[in-house]
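User: For my dataset I need records formatted as: sequence, then structure tokens, nothing else. Please produce one.
Assistant:
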Amino acid sequence: MRHLLLAAAAAALLAAPAAAQQAVKPGVPSILQWSPEQQKAWYPAIETAYRVNTIKAGGKVHPLPKAAKQLPDALSDAYMAQNDVSGFLVIKDGKIVAERYGLDRKPQDRWTSFSVAKSVTSTLVGAAIADGKIKGEDALVTDYIPELKGSGYDGVTVRQLLMMSSGVKWNEDYTDPNSDVARAGTAIVEPGVNPLVSYMRKLPRANEPGTKFTYNTGETDLVGILVSNAVGKSLSAYASEKIWKPYGMERDAVWVTDLAGHERGGCCISMTLRDYGRLGQFILDGGKAAGKQVVPPEFVARATSPQIKNGAPERGYGYFWWMPVSGAFEGRGIFGQSVTVFPEDRIVIVLNAAWPEATKRERSMARTAFLNSVREAAKGL
């Protein structure tokens, strides 16, 4: 459990230093150091703090009708109050059975995702495979990021990156200012080369690719660069084309960029609470939008089922999705963000929050217990 929580906490650290240098106005601290007042002000409006690209929504909105029976507010009152929850949404069989807001948030307000963005990036890989832009999960990373040729990424496949098992040596210690996660991508050292790529191509190999799970936020950003290179457009434009417009997201989203102006594949998309729900529903529905298969069903199945053991008391790790023992698959972000899908029950649960700490064992345990109680209550409706 401790390994899992530390990994989750580190998920945004790669984004933090570079994003701080991309601040819209001077004096914006690292996102990990925001006060409760700054969290409340900037989580729903991150574009006022950091530079972003926009994911355009279309004109048609995917309906999320309200079910006749709703979960009682009493079920979530205590959890929301104790964990600074700004948004709580439950969808069952495509209908809303609970929708609540806190911290003065309104339904039209966005909220930043932290590492839930990783699950979006994984989904865009599947879309690029369907489009024939990526040859398949076994395609070589160096085919799409040629600057990595001759590095520890020689012979590494797209699938191995998605499983966080490239074998490249990586230090995700967020307490060490000299760790890879603290240093990667924070300076442009080779003009014309993304700063993250410049850093990562100098790293040595530690394990045989595909054999060991190593939580590596740098590689989630690398996957974002890989997708952009493959499809010939920005991640924001591609997410708009493949998810936001065809599935019917209700509002434009924004995505924090790195020093080179590239969206960070591992962090910080901001969207509305209902659009988080639509994201979960899109994956639950097998990657279909407007009657079209956007992501291959077999890719969705692998992405949301255990592909590698991750050293935590869970079923394993998929393609940037976590696999809790409850049978769900889950996108997670620090400070209390999650999109949890229970496929057997056709239930999607979204939580947005502003925890006072990035992660804490007691809070993670409380969230798990709360999610399980909500699931049981929703099954009974």
